[in-house]
Amino acid sequence: DGSAHGPWPCKPLWDTCASHPRAAILPAHLHCLPVPCWHGDWVWLKKFPGDKHTEIKPATKTSFCKLRDLRHENVNLFLGFFYDCGVFAIVSEHCSRGSLEDLIRNEDMKLDWMFKSSLLIDLIKGMKYLHHRDVVHGRLKSRNCVVDGRFVLKVTDHGFNELLEAQKIPHEPPRPEERFWTAPELLRDPTLERKGTFRGDIYSISIIMQEVICRSAPYCMLDMPADEIIRKVAKPPPLCRPSVSVDQAPLECIQLMKQCWCEQPERRPTINQIFDQFKNINKGRKTNIIDSMLRMLEQYSSNLEDLIRERTEELEIEKQKTDKLLTQMLPPSVAQALKMGTPVEPEYFEEVTLYFSDIVGFTTISAMSEPIEVVDLLNDLYTLFDAIIGSHDVYKVETIGDAYMVASGLPHRNGNRHAGEIANMSLDILSAVGSFRMRHMPEVPVRIRIGLHSGPCVAGVVGLTMPRYCLFGDTVNTASRMESTGLPYRIHVNIRTVTILHSLKEGFKLDIRGKTELKVLVPLTPDPQPLLARPCPPALPVPLTPDPQPLPWPRPLPCPLSLGHAPSSMATPPLRTS
Which stretches are transmembrane (predicted)? Predict the structure, then answer.
């Protein structure tokens, strides 16, 4: 009922934990553990088996009094016991760094020999105190050794077997992996195993020494199941023990460890002998708690700095990957503005040149191919295009199906060079497509048509979830029409782009195509009758050839020279005008 028992007032600690203002700041890794808050401090609950305890027996209270009087810096403090609604548990001091098992398994924590020896000497001091008080631990393992915030090791769970015996609680057989620390003579005698012995505690110390020295689980070097290991330990020969390399610890420490796990209990050293031998291992160096704590704190601080530096470098690498991916999707200036939370206003560009291209007969190719083959085709083709545009002052706007859109003159203005950049890029793409082959249909050539147009447009970012950098204006529509009315393997160019190319004087060769019907927008006249769309006149008044068939294509194409160096007689694919 949560009433007081002896000198320890023990109301339900779970209710205390839930209502206490500090309960909300319990460390994240402890939320799933029995760590309530009692009188403003975190405490540890060790629950007894079963949930139908009806009374606290007198022998149990006597054992509690014995535990209460144990006071040592390396023995975890016993605070009281909890009894409510049939649940019975002991309350002990909580250590913030968890168990010794947690510490040695933490790969981020670097443990040198001085650090390890400080932990081991704390263990030996704590067990020496308990043995001098005639207390047999009986359950000693790395999980029952806790480390506080100052890296001081404290022995806990002592006296638990005695409490189980006093309270007449049925014994629950432990799992095989929980018996690694149990001495062979105890494994062979279940009754003796339940009570424990002083010599059995010495054996447990040796297994903990192996864990600390190797920073690994007991018997981790033996490739066999836990129950098989326990069977071999309990029934020698041959003798089954962990193996430790001589370069992992001083030779004297390894020899002491082997003495402690000797098969004959009477040949194992006493806790006083272990303490004396271990003091001599450090060869006169101080191992008092203050010096050890300072060294451990310095080591911990250094480890923390290294860990922060390592994590910062990893974060910077991931940030660079994210920035690179973002700048591939959006212009760098726009991406930077979005990262800073700055609104991106639409921007008007007086004159840019736009490029559109698509695959001729793509619908037929798609009908004859599997979906994955279509994806491979577009990926291979666009990878080829992306490699080409990297050497020109252009910006890839988007791809929609088989349509590929590129612009020059935005988002960074480049005078009137935009037309020349797009023209040279178009020639490079056309030349590369001539030798491109589909994986699944290598005998079928890939034919593309290209349309170019120059003019004003507005660019801006549209959307929040998946923002896109989009272009708007008649120039976009006209460039798309130039592509859709073009011919395979030809570059269809509007007169406005032709004018800019002539002004650049870079030796581009252009052929007049002639009349081509396009869909156009016309203003309404006072006459409400709709006007008929008229065919666009040719760019220059030149007669059509008798046979207006497209020129044979593809044909071998030389690589275009750099801007400003292409001679007027250079053999380049003709750019068509309308």
Answer: none
